[in-house]
Design a protein that fits this description.
The chain has 16 helices and 20 strands. It has 449 residues and is an alpha/beta fold. The chain folds into 3 domains: 8-95, NAD(P)-binding Rossmann-like Domain (Rossmann fold), CATH 3.40.50.720; 102-306, Mur-like, catalytic domain (UDP-N-acetylmuramoyl-L-alanine:D-glutamate ligase); 315-446, Mur ligase, C-terminal domain (Protein-Tyrosine Phosphatase, Chain A), CATH 3.90.190. Belongs to the MurCDEF family. Pathway: Cell wall biogenesis; peptidoglycan biosynthesis. One of its GO terms (biological process) is regulation of cell shape.
Length: 449
């Protein structure tokens, strides 16, 4: 049921890109008075002209405070920080500030499965979606991994569910948004340049369950002490998952041989193709959310026997001259690289580096025990060299970028070794996106003779 009539009438959409454009379309289609403000967009852009034809008021090229005149609510692009002058002024004037995902609650009353966490969101979101599809459930994918949530919500049918990957940026800007199943994977210090401090970041993540009711589900990592404490405040039914605890009365867990949901063995561990403890956590979360939403054991088994990972997230590139090559370009923080390193027992040649956000990398030192060589690049190269030396890594080389690093790193491997791109850093010092960085790496290793 569409309840857009209950949304405020005069709206400022701040920042276009994919989510802002989608939000503006939905609001205009719902008869709202919409002002669009974007500094980078051009009046010649096809999407901008479309919004103008629909009736949007366009203010492009700058951010004058006058755009807030008469505005009842601001829908901002998730990437825009809260210290942006327009946002800061809106807050001072007590004008609500939300993100595009907030509109989902006004567009559909169909079940929504929302997934968040510092790491593993994309893998878990993909697993849940595929498990439901192979169980003959009607499901649509949305959010960071797919189409903008508002576009999907508009097309939802009565027998469909939405699976949506959610960032802390999106979740900080919600008021009414309520997933019927929320999945909280983990919490690790990240995005502090955006949120300001760890407490604010954790609060944003935990917004995923703030509106849940007693008939909703909250799937959470019982091995994460921060989450375990925070979820005591939920109204939803709690479904924990754990790789260390027996949860046969409570949720998803593993024994020595199987993945289990409550007291039911779902699939043998030896039949699962994804590697790594962190992926086992993602699998448990996905199994719990999928089972709660109608997935069959057969559907779950099919996915886990065939799914080898999402692109750029510990993606197996292939065997090249008897070396195992993995692209983990999506590892944009230390925790992700820790988990990648812990996934392998063999000799690893690690390629790492990227944007310097001011942090050190000492937390990586205990996880470098199986690393025989490192190739470092980007703004953080010297910091990563330092911790490599402290960890006792014998060979450390510098490279200009990932294409250069791939070739240098491959030359340091022996047959049976792992060549692993897992940067522990964002890509923006040298590349537009982590996807671009990963694609360049994959192209480079395929040119090695």
């Amino acid at each position: 049921m569409n309840t857009m009539k209950q949304f405020p009438e005069t709206v400022l959409v701040l920042g276009l890109a994919r989510s802002g454009t989608a939000a503006a379309r939905v609001l205009l289609d719902g008869g709202k008075d919409v002002t669009v403000n974007d500094q980078a967009a051009s009046y010649d852009d096809d999407s901008v002209q479309e919004l103008q034809r629909k009736g949007a008021h366009l203010v492009l090229g700058s951010h004058p405070l006058s755009v807030l005149g008469g505005i009842e609510v601001v829908v901002k692009n998730p990437g825009i920080r809260y210290d942006h002058p327009i946002i800061a002024e809106a807050i001072r004037r007590n004008i609500p500030v939300v993100t595009e995902v907030e509109l989902v609650s006004y567009l559909t009353q169909q079940p929504v499965i929302g997934i968040t966490g510092s790491n593993g969101k994309t893998t878990t979101t993909t697993l849940i979606t595929e498990m439901l599809k192979y169980s003959d459930c009607n499901v649509k994918l949305a959010g960071n991994i797919g189409i903008a949530a508002t576009e999907v919500a508009q097309t939802m049918q009565v027998d469909e569910k939405m699976v949506i990957e959610l960032s802390s940026f999106q979740l900080q800007g919600i008021s009414e948004f309520r997933p019927t199943t929320a999945v909280l994977l983990n919490i690790f210090e990240a995005h502090l340049d955006y949120h300001g401090d760890l407490e604010s970041y954790v609060n944003a993540k935990c917004n995923i369950f703030k509106n849940q009711q007693a008939d909703d589900y909250l799937v959470y990592n019982a091995d994460d002490s921060t989450l375990k404490e925070r979820v005591t405040h939920t109204n939803a039914k709690k479904i924990p998952f754990s790789v260390t605890k027996n949860l046969q009365q409570e949720g998803a867990w593993t024994n020595e041989t199987h993945v289990c949901f409550f007291d039911e063995a779902i699939i043998a561990l030896e039949d699962i193709v994804l590697v790594g403890k962190h992926n086992l956590e993602n699998i448990l979360a996905a199994v719990a959310a999928a089972k709660l939403n109608g997935a069959t054991n057969e559907g779950i088994q099919h996915v886990l026997r065939t799914f080898s990972g999402v692109k750029h997230r510990l993606e197996f590139v292939g065997m090249i001259q008897d070396r195992y090559v993995y692209n983990d370009s999506k590892a944009t923080n230390i925790l992700a690289t820790q988990k990648a390193l812990d996934s392998f027992k063999k000799g690893i040649v690690l390629l790492a580096g990227g944007l310097d956000r001011g942090n050190e990398f000492d937390e990586l030192i205990p996880h470098l025990k199986n690393v025989k060589a490192m190739v470092v690049f980007g703004e953080t190269a010297s910091k990563l060299e330092r911790i490599g030396r402290e960890a006792g890594v014998q060979v450390i080389k510098h490279a200009e970028g990932v294409d250069d690093a791939a070739k240098i790193g491959f030359a340091l491997t022996d047959a049976g070794d792992i060549l692993l791109l897992s940067p522990a850093c964002a890509s923006w010092d040298q590349y537009k996106t982590f996807e671009e960085r990963g694609d360049i790496f994959v192209q480079a290793v395929h040119t090695i003779n």
